[in-house]
Amino acid sequence: MGGTDAKDILGLPKTPLSLTQEKKSRPQKESHRKPDGISREVYALTGGVAPLMPSIDVTHLKRRPPPDEKVAWQWLPVKSSARNDDLQLFHWVRVVNDVPPSGDYSFAKYNKSVDVLKYTDDEYENHLTDPVWSKEETDQLFEYCERFDLRFTVIADRFPLSRTVEELKDRYYSVTRSLLRARAQSPSDLANHPLMKEPYDMTRDRERKRALSMVLSQSRHQEKKDAEILAEAKRITEMRLAARRAAEPDVPANENIGSVSPSSNSQLPATAVAPSTLTMADYASTLASLRMLHVYLRTYGLEQMVQAASSAVGLRTIKRVEQTLQDLGVNLKPKVPTKTVCDEHLELRKEILTLLNLQKQLQYKESEGSSHREGAYASMPDTPKDRVFASEPFSFGAERPIKKEQKRKGPGRQSDTPSPAHKRPRKLKASDL
Amino acid sequence: MEDSPVEILSASTPKPRIGIDGGDDNKNWRRRVNGVEVSVPIVCGSIAFFRGKKAKEYRTHNWTVYVRGATNEDLGVVIRKVIFHLHPSFKSPTRVVDSPPFTLSECGWGEFKIDITIFFHADACERKLELSHLLKLNPEIYSGPQSPNVPVVTESYNEIVFPDPFECFLSRVNNHPAVHVSKLPEGLNLPPPGAFLLLSLLNHLLLLVHDFHCNVAGDADDESYYKMKKGDTKDYPLSHWFLKFSDADELFKLTATRQKVQADIAKLKRQLVMVDAQPE
């Protein structure tokens, strides 16, 4: 055929031949049969290989009842130990060879009940009197406890005199404890009883419930603030530890650390978020540790200071700073590391960090403003660190920060000028950026 | 609106003063001068020549590794000795160079990392300093067969920093061309470089005499003869291959970039203020 000749000339494989070749290889692969007991689809899921350890014994899967058994289903009456009335119930029962199954109703074991102690009048007189509670009330309480299985909220609802849940609990547990103590043969018997080991404390219970409700009712805003403050506190303690460790062996360095940490201490209560003072102490402790070396290479010193600057931020931010440096045409490690070059380099890195943080702040504030609060919940981060990660989806990434800056020049200027002219400033739209 | 929480202030340098070195007895010569920094600009590098016709399988390149002053001044004022740790395939791979210029020449075929340990004079620092240099024999970009006249030069600039130096060290090296001393505090009275200098000079002389004895007998090639004369590398045989390092370009680039970043920060701050002014 003309087609095959042309292919021959060009050196292409003739398709009919290649097809047969494929056909040959394919049946070879799919020649293993799937094992019995597993459906074809499931077998394919495992990649055509049988699982090493069958989880279910394959023979169980299509088992049929042995043919010598005679199985019938009968409608029979039920006797349950869980019921203490005369109600006669019926249900279907699987009867094998005319022998009905024996034993209690299978669900009767789930009928657990509480061991509510019963006291005699004498016991009440001797141990259980209370100024606030009358005997009738206490009796009623105990009756309810038995009836409602210590579900105090239900008991509180039905109690004739309005008592709070905590009061009811308190009365019940103190009565039971006194009874146990009174009845105990020896003190050691009691020691292991859970009520004796952990007595009910009404005030603590109230406090706990109040705290829980407070946490529940906290607004998102409050939650964020709390998390931020906790993160700050953690960082401060860590930095203080580092500063203390760095300052220990060297006396002159100690004085420098001493002068820095009180200042950072005093600044803390003033602002909830103060990473500037934290990094100050970071630098001071790095400088101190460098001084302690008595000799070091300038490049090593720069490395340490850069690490100190990056200690409060995550790895992603560090990478972004480096990417920005590269984009701006600055060597990540200076080629001629003189003192001035290293100082400038460090300052530049710090400024880039500030820039990136501001960018994120701006993104975050804009996302908060543009989307409704409910919608923004899903993407709202908890800690300053998380804020870094949450903003990744936006296009302000580190890839081209310069270009984005240049783009912003236009609308930035436009929005600046109309604001004094207009009464209401023009709302920044996402399309502006 | 509260101040942006991300502004990172630069660390201030401590005020210079004379401090007492903790742990030592208060001899004058062990007093440290705080707030002053002595820095020694150095260049650590290697020069490798292809042996051309003389090349054998395991001896293809003649190379020299060195630690020199960035302006080719004598580093012997600060450095006592330098140990070059060569690849274990070399005989006695720990090579000690105890007088300037701190160079080591060898013949080999392979590229490897050379660990360099620098020891200082006692009045400078008792600790040693470690750095490393990757020996390169072949050029980065292949541009034809190597010429035995054009070497492969790899140099890296660095500075040895002595923070809060000892008084005696400071007085000895102040005004030495190999050493850069940061601004001295007002009214600082440095002791004259008296007794200690004599000691170090004596040390130096002894070493030179030793070298002379060792080298005058054997083949007095350029290098060892040169060693007897002086410690700087200005007239070193290979000095015309040395690179010149200047921080001007880098500094210019850095300051320009900083200005740009500062401008961007100001712009962002303005935008933030505007966004905050919007009703939510």
From TrEMBL, chain A:
<dbReference type="InterPro" id="IPR009057">
    <property type="entry name" value="Homeodomain-like_sf"/>
</dbReference>
<dbReference type="GO" id="GO:0000122">
    <property type="term" value="P:negative regulation of transcription by RNA polymerase II"/>
</dbReference>
<feature type="region of interest" description="Disordered">
    <location>
        <begin position="365"/>
        <end position="433"/>
    </location>
</feature>
<dbReference type="InterPro" id="IPR027109">
    <property type="entry name" value="Swc4/Dmap1"/>
</dbReference>
<dbReference type="GO" id="GO:0006281">
    <property type="term" value="P:DNA repair"/>
</dbReference>
<dbReference type="InterPro" id="IPR032563">
    <property type="entry name" value="DAMP1_SANT-like"/>
</dbReference>
<dbReference type="Pfam" id="PF16282">
    <property type="entry name" value="SANT_DAMP1_like"/>
</dbReference>
<dbReference type="GO" id="GO:0000812">
    <property type="term" value="C:Swr1 complex"/>
</dbReference>
<dbReference type="GO" id="GO:0035267">
    <property type="term" value="C:NuA4 histone acetyltransferase complex"/>
</dbReference>
<dbReference type="GO" id="GO:0006338">
    <property type="term" value="P:chromatin remodeling"/>
</dbReference>
<feature type="compositionally biased region" description="Basic and acidic residues">
    <location>
        <begin position="365"/>
        <end position="375"/>
    </location>
</feature>
<feature type="region of interest" description="Disordered">
    <location>
        <begin position="1"/>
        <end position="38"/>
    </location>
</feature>
<keyword id="KW-0805">Transcription regulation</keyword>
<keyword id="KW-0156">Chromatin regulator</keyword>
<dbReference type="InterPro" id="IPR008468">
    <property type="entry name" value="DMAP1"/>
</dbReference>
<keyword id="KW-0804">Transcription</keyword>
<feature type="compositionally biased region" description="Basic residues">
    <location>
        <begin position="421"/>
        <end position="433"/>
    </location>
</feature>
<keyword id="KW-0539">Nucleus</keyword>
<protein>
    <recommendedName>
        <fullName>Myb-like domain-containing protein</fullName>
    </recommendedName>
</protein>
<feature type="domain" description="Myb-like">
    <location>
        <begin position="129"/>
        <end position="178"/>
    </location>
</feature>
<dbReference type="Pfam" id="PF05499">
    <property type="entry name" value="DMAP1"/>
</dbReference>
<dbReference type="InterPro" id="IPR001005">
    <property type="entry name" value="SANT/Myb"/>
</dbReference>
TrEMBL record, chain B:
<keyword id="KW-0175">Coiled coil</keyword>
<dbReference type="InterPro" id="IPR005033">
    <property type="entry name" value="YEATS"/>
</dbReference>
<dbReference type="GO" id="GO:0005634">
    <property type="term" value="C:nucleus"/>
</dbReference>
<protein>
    <recommendedName>
        <fullName>YEATS domain-containing protein</fullName>
    </recommendedName>
</protein>
<dbReference type="Pfam" id="PF03366">
    <property type="entry name" value="YEATS"/>
</dbReference>
<keyword id="KW-0804">Transcription</keyword>
<dbReference type="GO" id="GO:0006355">
    <property type="term" value="P:regulation of DNA-templated transcription"/>
</dbReference>
<dbReference type="InterPro" id="IPR038704">
    <property type="entry name" value="YEAST_sf"/>
</dbReference>
<dbReference type="InterPro" id="IPR055129">
    <property type="entry name" value="YEATS_dom"/>
</dbReference>
<feature type="coiled-coil region">
    <location>
        <begin position="251"/>
        <end position="278"/>
    </location>
</feature>
<feature type="domain" description="YEATS">
    <location>
        <begin position="32"/>
        <end position="176"/>
    </location>
</feature>
<keyword id="KW-0805">Transcription regulation</keyword>
<keyword id="KW-0539">Nucleus</keyword>
